[in-house]
Amino acid sequence: MSSPGIEGRLFGAAMLMLPGEFRSEYGEEIRVLARDTVREAQSQGAGSARSARTRIVVDLLLAAMREHARKESVMHFNLAGLGAGIAIAIGLPMMVASYSSYGFWGLVRETGAVVGFDSSDVAVHPTIVLVGAVLTAIGLLALVHRLATASPATSSTLRIAAVLGSAMVGLGGAAMFAYALPTVSAWRGAFDLVGGLLLGPGFLVILAVLIAAGVIALRTRALGVLSFAPLAVAGSLVLLMVVALLGFATGMPMEAFVRGPAMVVSVWLVPATSVLLGAALALTPIPSGARVRRSEPRPA
Fold first, then answer.
1. Rounded to a whole number, what is the distance in angstroms from the first to the last CA of the chain?
2. Which of 14, 24, 103, 283 is the 20 to 30 A CA-CA neighbour of 249?
3. What are phi and psi of 126, to 5 degrees?
């Protein structure tokens, strides 16, 4: 924060973090107080002015956190959202880990040994991706449904994108069933090409849905205190993609790269944030001051 221009933009951003009704009622007073505070500090030098601006921005951010928490922190269990929450908490990590986690496949092999199936079978990977895609679609549709204040056009677009992205990833994984065909089969190469073309764009569409839904959820507090969860999942996916691209760029052997600490940490962030999003779908925020209406006893 080296110039008033930058600090002014940070002040504006901090003001936007405050709840709308609080901003409309006290916004002008806050601006006047901030202006007078900075003017007084400027008489003591540029360093004092910068410190005053920094302090004002920090105070505004803390006030925004307090006001949002005061408004909406009461949550209650939502049975209808429980299934969708479980679906997104399992489905998205399942798809991501099936392509990027050595530990995940170690778990699959151990589980397979216990129940008596061979995890190297060509049907295992595409089946996992297909199941993950279906579960992810269920979770994303439930997330869009919770954005009650979004316009019908926005909700419709997000629903279509959620289904499309999940279907692309699922079909991309299903293309690997072609590995059961003979190596010389022309169909095998064709399906492999189609699968490769679908997977990347499919993940990007899912990422776009999470970002768009996350921005709406934060603005409307649609998921209560967990309204940040969709953006947290999106952030974990972006980190994973960046780490993967850097790994490919260095030319590191695939097995060593997948076992590397950077990849392991970024992979594990996906299920951690997905569980948060699942919890957000399984809980419903109740504004403070709202009371559950109790049925009055009937007179005898």
1. 70
2. 103
3. -60, -35
The residue type at 116: G
Burial class (CB in 10 A: 0-12, 13-18, 19+), 204: middle
pTM, whole model, 2 decimals? 0.68
Question: 28: how many CB neighbours lie within 10 A of its CB?
Answer: 10
Token pair of 286, please? 């109740």
Cα 176 to Cα 228: distance, rounded to the nearest angstrom: 35
Neighbours of 153 (CB within 10 A): 8
pLDDT tens for each residue of 26-56: 888 888 888 888 888 888 888 888 888 888 8
Express each pLDDT in 265-300 by its tens digit.
888 899 999 999 999 999 876 544 444 444 444 444
In angstroms, how far is CA 193 from the centroid of its own chain? 29
d(CA 47, CA 49): 5
CA atoms within 13 A on the CB side of 246: 10
Phi-psi region of 274 (alpha: psi -120 to 50; beta: other; left: phi over 0): alpha
Sign of the CA dihedral with 140 first, then 142, 146, and 150 last? positive
